[in-house]
Every structure is written in C-alpha cells, then in structure tokens.
C-alpha cells in the first residue's frame, strides 16, 4: 500500500501570521489534523483547547489536546475552519510526521484515490 503525503497549511485565524506549513501523511484512520505537541506554540494562543484521550493504532491510550479554531488548507482544496489534535510524537530521523485525518479530508472535499495514490476533489458534499 502506498503512502500519500501532501503539503498543508494550518493557521490561527485570531493571530494572522501564526502558521505552520508542512508535509503531512494522509491517514484515513486518524480523525482530525494531528500535529506534534512540540509545535503547539507556533500557532500562538488558540481560543479553545480540551484534553482528550486518544486510542492509538499501537493499542496505547494517550492524552492529547484538541485545539481550535484553526484554518487548514491543502493545495487545490478549499480552506476549512477546523480543530487540530496536538499529540506527543517522536521524531523519526529528526522529523515529525503530522497526519491529515478523515474529518479534515471530508471538510476539504478531498478523497483518497487508492489507485493513483493521490488526493482527488469531491464535487458534491454528501449529506445523506
């Protein structure tokens, strides 16, 4: 199975200029945009933050912070207003691996093209 990595910009709407631009792994098993806790201060003061328990793929349960609102945008897709999850991450080879989760994908009208290993635009929002 291939990996889909795309560029993403996350910005604090209350503090224009406080932003993170990074490559992130598309992970349909993650629920929202997930960033390393070490980057939290780069977005400035976010209005709402709540501690939540997260169940990881490794079967561990850890605590993270869901914060927002933030603007999230991937190239070719509309900018959305959403939340991000800050989680303690270990840097592999000196780099963190942020995740783009399924809620972020759905809000952005992005779908995973499993054959082409890329993101594709969804023309219509499904409200069924």
Describe the structure.
The protein has one helix at 102-107, and strands spanning 5-11, 19-26, 33-36, 48-55, 61-73, 80-87, 99-100, 110-113, 118-121. It is mainly beta and 128 residues long. The chain has a single domain (5-121), classed as Beta Barrel (Cathepsin D, subunit A, domain 1), CATH 2.40.70.10. The strands form two sheets. Strands 1, 2, 3, 4, 5, 6 and 7 form a seven-stranded mixed sheet that branches. A two-stranded antiparallel sheet has the order 8-9.
CATH class: Mainly Beta
Number of β-strand runs? 9
End-to-end CA span: 30 Å
Low-confidence stretches: none
Classify the secondary structure makeup into a structural class.
mainly beta
CATH topological fold name: Cathepsin D, subunit A, domain 1
Helix tally equals 1
Helical proportion?
A: under 10%
**What string gives the helices and strands in order?**
EEEEEEEHEE
CATH superfamily: Acid Proteases
Beta-strand content estimate = over 45%
- The pLDDT mean sits at 94
What labels would you give this structure?
128 residues, 9 strands, two-stranded antiparallel ribbon, single chain, mainly beta, Cathepsin D, subunit A, domain 1, seven-stranded mixed beta sheet
């Amino acid at each position: 199975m291939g990996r889909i990595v795309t560029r993403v910009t996350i910005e604090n709407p209350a503090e224009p200029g406080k932003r993170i631009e990074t490559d992130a792994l598309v992970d349909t098993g993650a629920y929202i945009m997930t960033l390393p806790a070490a980057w939290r201060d780069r977005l400035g003061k976010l209005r709402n933050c709540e501690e939540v328990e997260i169940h990881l793929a490794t079967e561990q349960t850890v605590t993270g912070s869901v914060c927002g609102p933030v603007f999230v945008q991937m190239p070719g897709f509309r900018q959305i207003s959403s939340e991000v999850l800050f989680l303690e991450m270990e840097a592999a080879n000196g780099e963190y691996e942020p995740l783009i989760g399924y809620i972020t994908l759905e809000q952005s009208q992005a779908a995973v093209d499993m054959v082409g290993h890329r993101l594709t635009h969804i023309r219509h929002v499904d409200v069924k």
